[in-house]
Amino acid sequence: MPLQDLVTAEKPIPLFVEKCVEFIEDTGLCTEGLYRVSGNKTDQDNIQKQFDQDHSISLVSMEVTVNAVAGALKAFFADLPDPLIPYSLHPELLEAAKIPDKTERLHALKEIVKKFHPVNYDVFRYVITHLNRVSQQNKINLMTADNLSICFWPTLMRPDFEKREFLSTTKIHQSVVETFIQQCQFFFYNGEIVEVVNTVAPPPPSNPGQLVEPMVPLQLPPPLQPQLIQPQLPTDPLGII
C-alpha cells in the first residue's frame, strides 16, 4: 500500500511505524546490534499480521523481542511500493554528497530533502530522528551512524542492485543516509552542524542464536510524537540526546 494511503493530516506517521519505534525506544534502545542482529522471522511476520488484524494491538502484550520489532520496521519500508527516499532525487543526493566542502555539502543536502513529498518528508524525519537516538547509545549498542546507515540505506533508497554502475556508488548511497543520521538536528530542527568524531564501534558479534544482517536488506523521553515536533529534538532527562 502506498505510504500516502497510510497517513492522514492528523496522523502524518503510519501507526505501525509509531508502534514499532515506541516499543524499541521504550524497551530496547541499548540492545547490542539493534537493527543489525536479526530477530525471529516468524515473530517478525506475525507482528505485521497481528497489527493488520487489530491496529490497537500492543507489541508488549505480544511478548516479542526488540530485534523482531526492529526487523518488522525495516520490512515495512522494504515492502512499500516506492522507497522512502524518492528515486527522482537520488541523482541530486549523490551529487551533493560528493561536494568537498562539508558546510556546502550539508546545505546542499538540506535543500534537496526539502523537495521530498510532504508525506515522505515527515516520515523520513521521524525515522532519522529515531536512528539518531539509537546512535547516541553506540557505546552500549555498538550501532554508530555508520553501522546504522549500512543496515538502512538499501531499504530507504532501494537502488537497482543489478545495475553495474550501482556498484561504484554504494559507499556514496550509504554516506548520504549516514550524514542524515549524524546531522539530524541540522537537517530537521534548525540545529547547528555537528562536529563528528570518527569513533568506530566494532560490529556486533554474532552467535549461534542470532543472525547478523548483511549490508543488503532483506530510560528515554516519550517516543517522538510527529504532530508535536518542536524545532529542537526533545530534551532527554537522562542525558541521552
From TrEMBL:
SMART domains, sorted: RhoGAP
UniProt cross-references to Gene3D superfamilies, sorted A to Z: Rho GTPase activation protein
PROSITE patterns (UniProt xref): RHOGAP
Alphabetized SUPFAM superfamilies for the sequence: GTPase activation domain, GAP
GO molecular-function terms, A-Z: GTPase activator activity
An annotated GO cellular component: cytosol
Pfam family, one: RhoGAP
InterPro entries: Rho-GAP_domain, Rho_GTPase_activation_prot, RhoGAP_dom
Domain Rho-GAP: residue ranges: 1-188
GO biological process, one term: regulation of cell size
Protein name according to UniProt: Rho GTPase activating protein 5
Lineage: Eukaryota, Metazoa, Chordata, Craniata, Vertebrata
